[in-house]
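Re: the pair you flagged

First of the two:
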Amino acid sequence: MPKPLKWVLRGFGGLLLGLVLLVLAWGLSNSPLADSAPRPRPAELEVHVRDIPAERNGFFIQIGLLAPSGEDPAVAGQRLWIAQHYAPGSGGLALPAGDLWDCDKGNEECTGLWFRRSSDMAHELAVHAEFVRRCVMLADAPDYEERLIPWGDGTHLELPQYKTVMACNRVLRASLVLAAGRGQSAAALQAFDRADRLARLQLTGCHSLIGQAIAWAAARRNAQTAAALAAQHPELASALLARLPPLPPEVLSAAPWIAFESGFGQATIDGMEAGCRRAIARKQFDAAADRLWCEYRIGLLPNATKQALDQQWLAIRAVADRGMPAALQADASLPDLVPPWAYLHWRNSIGGVLVDVARPQYAQYLAKQADVELLRTAAALALRMSVEHVDAARRQTWLDAQSLPAPLRARLSLDAGALSVKPWLADVPGAAAGPSPQIRLPLAS
């Protein structure tokens, strides 16, 4: 055999041997032998459940809000929860819809529209009287706690509807505006109390990020509505101001929803393992990667993946605990575009990609949560100006004299008969802050 051919064959054999060794080394680095030892989850990521009895828990009323007329929404909600299917079925109530209900756009809110079209709004409330009654029932519930979805069996899990809660918030705020327009102060304040209580029930009782986000939106809208209403009806300013106390620190903490979302990530991995067991039993795989992991247990290390996800959430919580300026700075340090090779992991290749993809752009959620107290503080300032009869010429001096944290003060300004607020969300790149970055709270003339 000619020497050049021998060299070529030896080179090819060496290359093939190297490739085989590389594949073997990768396989060993992605086999169960390379997985991390199981360890308890961090206590900081534990979901704290109060386990309120079903008959006292407004969560079941929420699930049953659209149940057919004549049914008890709490009973219907418990039935739907047991079935893990939340569509009310035939004969269910229709959710209020139309321009009078869809007026919360971006930083705008509905009070002005409802004042101008009060007769139309009164007709809408009459048409949806059964839904209105159920919203009152929800706001008057003895307690509220979002139940945890049964995770980990790998089946499709349907989330309860939360858009009904935002519709209830609009119902209660509309009732407030209409009652004030009729001069019915007691009824107006009762409607505000219910809107406020519903938001606070959810702020303290929701575990999931979606549930918290709905509660944040409701609480922000309540503050905006209080300020807008007092500008039209200064006689209500003092009573509304008394209804806007500072929120408790636990409501402003990201810890509850971070714990829930981290648990959801753990359950996703458990669900994938359960799905693998079913795929092996029926010998049917959706993709080659599924076969690689499910049948040969190569590519995804469950313990290592779960632990990496936990570390990711602990880092987010640490940033959240330092406040919004730190959160914005940390989020801005993340690259907008990640090169494809950044998703290549030698060890735990599939699990590493799952961790990378699961990494949230969290600043927008922290901003929305921080905007709850920002809007409450701004609305309280607007109401105090009305209560203390601060005229337009003295407003700036009055505002400068208030004792406010520097980061909050920097977000407030006076603008042509309004107190303008720059929400934290406006500082998050790419986040939807509405058509205008400013929220204007009108001041009494």
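Second of the two:
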Amino acid sequence: MLSDTIAFGSIDKKTDDALVFNKKTKSVLIDEYRRSWARRYLREARADLEEAERTPSASYDLKLEALKKAQSSIYFSLGCPEQISQIVEHSILNNVEVKNPVLRCLLAIEYKIQQIIDSYSENNEVEQVPEIVQIASSIVDLYT
């Protein structure tokens, strides 16, 4: 279980303690607009996964879309998606050592998206996508 306070990597330092989100004040951090977008992206990710099961010929593209939507749902549930995206990008580009479990999860999702894009193939197995969508669901439920 995640602790009450979640700290994310800093854009300015090579540590992961600059941006702090407190679950007890989540209503202040996330307005109804972002909360509704987080939930919407999560619903769409689940729908894309269901459609991928029904349409094997489009499975790869639908699972990739589901993964991106799950990622977006997490970003919206944590606050400002643009800032979260910058933190993830900075952590990847600068090989920042990440101790925070949520940021590690965000990095893993970003790596998985890049891995799927880089190894594009219709026969490519993207079996981890449903599990990642479930993890996104848990994070969104926790913060919204």
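Residues 5-143 form one domain.

-B.
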